[in-house]
Amino acid sequence: MNSHPTPEPAGTPPTPKQIRRWRKYLADEIAEATLYEQLARRKSGEERQILLGLAAAEKRHQEHWRQLLGPHAHKLPGPSVHRVLLGWMARIFGSVFVLALAQRAEGESPYDQDLDATRGMAADEEIHEEVVRALAARGREKLSGGFRAAVFGANDGLVSNFALIMGMGGTGVGATVVLMSGVAGLLAGALSMAAGEFISVRSQRELLDATRPTQVTLRAAPDLDFDHNELVLVYRARGLSEEDAEHRALERLGVFECDCRPELSYPRTQGEAAEGSHNDHGVVGSAWTAAGSSFGFFAVGALIPILPYLFGATGWLAVGVSTALVGIALLGTGAVVGLLSGASPLKRALRQLAIGLGAAAITYALGSLLGVTVA
Asked: Among 152, 172, 311, 351, which one is most buried in terms of CB atoms within 10 A?
């Protein structure tokens, strides 16, 4: 943490600039507390308590600014646009996207460099960032393979089909040929993506099924020879230490009380829920859902570049409209990826745009070269 500046001596009259800044801080703290309370209403159990704890901390910060403002703690300005957007998204979309944005907001707190904020408040904001980061990570883990396939399928459809029609356009062929090439690319790409996602997710689920421990130790334990059995080897093969493996084997043989939960018979990985086994299948998602999402969103993404051709546009007009539509869509998919990763949505959107337009430019140049060569 950066060293916090020494505050002004008590009793110094606040300047108009300080009053404006404190009012802004107070408005933002009120908005943040409201945001966490809104999110808490959609949750239950531990997550609800964590969010309410964050709201209570923001209310403590409010009191600090109210005390400094005194009679000036009225007619507050509106909170920052970012916090207004967060509150609106909390009501509409729920927690996953909002927590990713809130993580960035907590990490950009000005308190660490402000003379009027306490060291404790600056430390609070740093801790809040880590709390929100952990909550956001929980939400990201709950996103199924279908959602992942949708986001990346749409992006792949945009880039691949846009590059395809730009390459075909560069050869100098007519608009009808470009359109047919785009339709073929849409169908082939969507089917390929769906098949690939289905195989990938199904294979991953099968690998998880093959990896998880079974109930065989429970079924076989009553008939095993106490002095000559391989139970310890089972648990050591699963990765337990020799001491833990011996203890687990004795539980199975009835020497110790057994909790009879096979998922506890192998090392727990970091991030697993304390109440039981990690829901790996839930994280991976359904193979059919992933395939359907990938097919549908790839097709939607691939449709966008050929829309001008479908409506009869030709030549540079079609190229310009297609480029504009694809650019807007790439910015949208990039921003979504940025939100989910907790990174800057703008930077991710611009990166996505640069990659998509760069791929199209290269294929257009190659198509132009090929057209000249064929001619």
From this structure: 152
